[in-house]
Amino acid sequence: MQTLLVTGGAGFIGGNFVYFLADETDVQIINLDKLTYAGNLDTLDPLRGNSRHVFVEGDICDRGLVRRLLGDYRVDAVVNFAAESHVDRSIDGPAAFVETNVTGTFNLLDCAREYWAGLGGSGKEGFRFLHVSTDEVYGSLGATGKFVETMPYAPNSPYSASKAASDHLVRAWYHTYGLPVLTTNCSNNYGPYQFPEKLIPLMTIKAMKGERLPIYGDGSNVRDWLYVEDHCRAIWRVLEAGRPGEVYNVGGESERTNVQVVDTLCALLDELLPDSPYRPHGQLKTFVADRPGHDARYAIDARKLQSELGWEPRESFESGMRRTLVWYLENQTWCKRVMDGSYRGERLGSR
């Protein structure tokens, strides 16, 4: 049986990947998460009692812990989701982003290198370190074109700068030490278990309460939207068959402006909540001052992943949004519990 160390596996994408592994594979999952505000054990509650899932609360910056987990469980691959990931929050407090995204990734890489160097035979040959990153490292696009893997990096926020630094470290550990690494750069994810500071869950929760739906600027900023289960399948495929040292972009082929996203969400809520006193939910939209350094457009060219590894998204934006909103409507208790801390849906990163 393969054993995977998944970091950040109580968060949004990491948690969904853990479920994918539990449902679609027979691997043993060692799930390391610090349980910051965006990581929550409620997300993993259905896995209680699953003998293939071992949860460990801890920090990827803890060298002794990471070394112990790699050795004690004879790990075959590391999949690194652990990251501070919200652009607005990075504007208010960039230090945490540097600590986790840069220092934490360095620690994982160096512990993995040490562990990998001590393996022999097929264990060493088969070991992989997969680093999950973002399209935001490439900066901002104009009205045309898409991000390809060979584009130079041009990060514009503290968040994207910290992820760019971590990507460079991963590349360096391959070229300098030979560590068999893989990097994926994905577009905007959405789906179940996303912390409600991000656009889609935040707007969904506010709309259900009849609160104003704040849209930055004129709402024309464009993102490529990727349903999280499609992303999880892509990561697994890269882990299975990706070439060490390579980067693979993962996109949903679903470019939408922010206002189009909110309009789609509102129309679906009108349909799914026919008795809501706030229908039509589109009347709740309001435009607010843009955030600093707001990139105009992202778009992913995922042809490398599609042609080399045979992956493609299964969900359209419309089908993925419907699945997402149905999940949030059916799991309002989860939303309330994960927001029991200090975050209450207020604006972040406005300075």
Please characterize this protein's 3D structure:
- This protein is of the alpha/beta class and 351 residues long.
- It has twelve helices and twelve strands.
- The chain has a domain at 3-190 and 227-252 and 295-314: Rossmann fold (3-Layer(aba) Sandwich), CATH 3.40.50.720.
- It has helices at residues 12-24, 63-72, 87-92, 94-117, 121-126, 158-177, 199-209, 228-241, 258-272, 303-309, 317-330, 332-338; strands at 3-7, 28-33, 53-57, 77-80, 128-134, 181-186, 188-190, 213-216, 222-227, 247-250, 255-257, 285-288.
Mean model confidence by pLDDT: 93
Uncertain stretches: 342-347
Task: Write down the CATH class of the domain at 3-190 and 227-252 and 295-314.
Answer: Alpha Beta
Quaternary status = single chain
- What's the gyration radius in Å? 20 Å
Number of E-type strands: 12
Residue share in helix: 40-55%
Structural category: alpha/beta
* Shape call: globular
CATH fold type of the domain at 3-190 and 227-252 and 295-314: Rossmann fold
Determine the CATH superfamily of the domain at 3-190 and 227-252 and 295-314.
Answer: NAD(P)-binding Rossmann-like Domain
State the order of secondary-structure elements, H for helix, E for strand. Answer: EHEEHEHHHEHEEHEEHEEHEHHH
Contiguous helical run count: 12
What's the CATH architecture name of the domain at 3-190 and 227-252 and 295-314?
A: 3-Layer(aba) Sandwich
Cα distance, first to last residue?
Answer: 50 Å
Strand content: 15-25%
Biggest beta sheet attributes = 7 strands, parallel
Neighbour order of strands in the largest sheet: 3-2-1-4-5-6-10
